[in-house]
Amino acid sequence: MNDKQKIENCIDLYYEGCCESDSVKIKQAFDENAMISGYLPDGLHEMSLEEFAEFVDAQQPSPQEKGDEPFLEILSCEIVGDTALVKIKEAYLGMIFIDSFSFLKKEDTWRIYTKLFHVES
User: Fewest 10 Å CB contacts: which of 9, 86, 88, 102?
Assistant: First the structure.
């Protein structure tokens, strides 16, 4: 499996975690030192991985259980050595997000290091 496929698998794991409200999958997709930041309609939100995992876990019933239509599109992926920048578009909690992920590769494993998000609609 090449690096791009490994990154795509990590993004799939992240999105499954969101759709299933599964904090374990979220924690597997992110580096332990990750930060999640961005703007929701009520303003700026900044979270540690633990805070973000708790937020995802709290979405009950999960989007999948509610029957939300999943949507995930990788808009761009640029790999430079053991770092990568990836932009995705996703449906989550009734909103369309544009996420910018930075990735780090440690011991041949790619994980999300930062997530910047913007609500498109």
Answer: 9
Q: Which residue has the tokens 């929701």?
A: 40
How far is the C-alpha of 5 from the C-alpha of 101, rounded, in Å? 15
Which residues lie below 8 Å from residue 19, measured CB to CB, with a gap of 6+? 62, 63, 64, 68, 70, 92
Question: Look-up: residue for tokens 């990590």?
Answer: 10
**Which of the 8 DSSP states describes residue 1?**
-
Query: 72-104, pLDDT tens digit by residue?
Result: 999 999 999 999 999 999 999 999 999 999 999
Cα–Cα distance measured from residue 7 to residue 111, given in angstroms and rounded to the nearest whole number: 8
Count of helix runs (H) and strand runs (E) in the chain = 4, 6
Alpha helices in the chain (DSSP H): 3-20, 23-29, 49-57, 63-66
Q: In what order do the strands lie in the sheet with 72-80?
A: 43-48, 30-40, 109-119, 95-106, 83-92, 72-80
- In tens, the pLDDT along 40-74 reads 989 999 999 999 999 999 999 999 999 999 999 99
Domains with residue ranges and CATH for the chain = 3-119 (3.10.450.50)
